[in-house]
Amino acid sequence: MKNKKIPMRKCIACGENKAKNDLIRIVNNKEEGVLADPTGKKNGRGAYICKDPSCIELAQKNHKLEHALKTEITQNLYEEIKDYVKNVNAK
Questions:
Q1: Cα separation of 53 and 86, whole Å?
Q2: What does pTM read for this prediction?
Q3: Is there a contact between 27 and 34 (Cβ–Cβ < 8 Å)?
Q4: Which residues contact 4 (CB under 8 A, 6 or more apart)?
Q5: What does the H/E/C string look like for 38-88?
Q6: Helix (H, G, I), strand (E, B) or coil at 21
Q7: 14 and 55 in contact (C-beta within 8 Å)?
Q8: Tens place of pLDDT for every residue, the chain, 91 residues?
Q9: Distance, CA of 2 to CA of 23 (rounded, Å)
Q10: Structural domains of the chain sorted by starting position, each given as residue range(s) with its CATH number in brackets
Q11: 16 has which bridge partners?
Q12: Measured between alpha carbons, how far is 28 from 8 in angstroms, rounded to an integer?
């Protein structure tokens, strides 16, 4: 039996390659704008970030999401991502 290949993605903040399931996808699409995509399947330009609050802080400080998604990121979106990470890490 073949082993299933695990898709790997790079965190935009720390630069580490991790399994896609261990990261959060942030997507910029025309209809909804910029939002967290827990399914990882929404259309649009995507960027991955670790489920670690320090990585989110680093991305915010260095404007990594703005650069990766080629758009302005609001403070509210960073707060939404932080809340999402708290909920995921609490489970």
A1: 8
A2: 0.89
A3: yes
A4: none
A5: CCCCCCCEEEEEECCHHHHHHHHHCCHHHHHHCCCCCHHHHHHHHHHHHHH
A6: helix
A7: yes
A8: 778 898 999 999 999 999 999 999 999 999 999 988 888 899 999 999 999 999 999 999 999 999 999 999 989 989 988 898 888 877 6
A9: 25
A10: 9-90 (3.30.1230.10)
A11: none
A12: 20
Select from 44, 42, 60 the least CA-distant residue to 52. Answer: 60
26, two tokens: 């942030």
CA 9 and chain centroid, separation: 10
What is the CB neighbour count within 10 angstroms for residue 56? Answer: 22
Structure tokens at 64: 């990594």
